[in-house]
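Entry 14. Structure prediction run on the chain below.
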Amino acid sequence: MFKSFTEIQTDIAERLGAAVKNRNLPMHSPVVATADADARVMVLRAFDAGAWTLRFHTDLRSPKCGVIGTGAPIGVLFYDKPEKVQIRVHGVGRIEHDTPLADAAWEESTNFAKRCYLGDGPGVASVDATSGLPEWAKGIQPTDEQVAPARDNFAIILIELHELDWFHLANSGHIRAQFSRESEGWEGRWVSP
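Output returned:
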């Protein structure tokens, strides 16, 4: 199936690129782990194959933003069960809030998605089960004016990838390759599964 590092890197890039565009693909919602050993499922919003970066959206008030700050280690786990491919990546993440990239991410989001940043911050305690949204925002597609205040709470997590671990499960024998980012590009090595 995959016999060269180039084929595997291409496979990784194609899978991550497709996951951004298709919410029905398993790799669209990977597990993201921060340096405090906290992990959560997040939606992959962008993958830049040239720079090897991932982008996720987050609430600036979330505790993970304090953990990540301007630079912290992050791991991301992608798994495609039907294809039997696992991709683990490690890199350095940073939070961007008042930057052109964060502004562009905000602008490309729907108002329905933007409304998630209107309510209480993540982790705020409540007596009742709650979405955290203000009552008026529940179940509606708000206007641009209604979601404008939410921009203050919107941020992105940008992760520059430094290590890739690709694992293919197969009855004929599993295959695993790892890559490290060097100054000249990616250096690959075969490893035992």
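Residues 5-21 form the longest helix (17 residues).
Filed with the rest of this week's runs.
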